Amino acid sequence: MGTVHARSLDPLPMHGPELGVHVDDVDLVEVQPETKQEILENKDVVVQHVHLDGLGRTKEDFLTHEIADVFTAKNLIDVMKKSHDARQKLLRLGIFRQVEVVIDTSQGDGALPNGLDVTFEVTELRRVTGSYNTMVGNNEGSMVLGIKLPNFLGRAEKLTFQFSYGTKETSYGLSFFKPQPGNFDRNFSLNVYKVTGQFPWSSLRETDRGVSTDINFPIWKTNHTLKWEGVWRELACLGRTASFAVREESGHTLKSSLSHAMMIDTRNSAIFPRRGALLKINQELAGYTGGDASFLKEDVELQLNKRLFWDSVLSVSLWGGMLLPFGDKPTCIADRFYLGGPTSVRGFSMSQAPGRPHQWDYLGGEAYWAGGVHLYTPLPFRPGRGGFGDLFRTHFFLNAGNLCNLNYGEGPQAHLQKLAECIRWSYGAGILLRLGNIARLELNYCIPMGVQSGDRICDGIQFGAGIRFL
Q1: CB-side exposure of 304: number of CA atoms within 13 Å?
Q2: Torsions phi, psi for 419 (to 5 deg)
Q3: What is the H or E stretch that residue 172 is in?
């Protein structure tokens, strides 16, 4: 029987933590038309051996979980399919630059007439890799330099040092990542970092120095993250014009918190979804493991997408959150919620929708809600269809939201009444540009409504860039 060379039939989906792997160009499966092979395609076969060629520092026992399903294949087509799935799992580990599959008949003593041997020919990544790229956040950009040690202990561990210099934030950090053998979605990470950010709408500069640990794991159709974070926060005024309320917040604080995040994501795309839903729920509890910050923080995000006629999509989003302090100490300006800007309630300046202004400094709020309705459509007349033009979409939007502080002695009904008063809302239209599958740019014409005294609006053209949009 001739040899069958099989490669991945489609690109590897980029899920989970940063992989640092680019899947090779797709090759079609080549099958030599020989009589014996045609017979094997229509009868049961037995996979007798699976080989891994090209391993250097990688521990072979770690990979047995990824290739074990190949032994369960019952016919040649099944062997090719399960070998393809195993190849994807190997690439997903982020430790191989290339993986090829060779399927051949068994040879030597003990070889069965219908026996097959499967060989995975791998090329490991270098011990040390460097990277330089740009990153888009919520209405800010940054240059990122990184040094990575992939697979440095032989079981898909990754040690990363990263330095980021941005328009509003500068940071550096060291992280260690380790997946569970046989289940890449179950992983552990440890991070040590320093982050300095500027928030002009609050005349505030914040420097965080901290350490955090994360455990990620799936349960049924949900993904969960358990996290502990200890951070020393240094708050300072950006200039002499900072209000007295901001000056009162200045100084050093220590926060130690436990948090849990749950996510269900059935969307076909994170940036331009055509169908599916997203639900994210995050809880953070601070103060019970030390530090001088003590609060319970809840944050919820919901998004629904429905494809309509003419390749248009209707999208509905809803955000909400509450910050409940423990004891008599008020909440910190660094922990509160903010609204406004091109990524949330469009038509209002960045984080300067409702938010307790003090001499044009915004201190945020302890409860908020925001909602949006979007109608996404292709560009008029579909220029560049099937190519560059598919990176663009037009949209018509209606956004609304409110944010306030709470007097916890008034009761839930009074809290809801506060959130229903003086709602800020806006509508408009714009053009969107997708940047890969991680971020997008927006150029919108906004008409803000429900403007209150102290709000800063952006009536007309507003530009935004980010990874999370209302």
Answers
A1: 6
A2: -70, -20
A3: strand 169-180
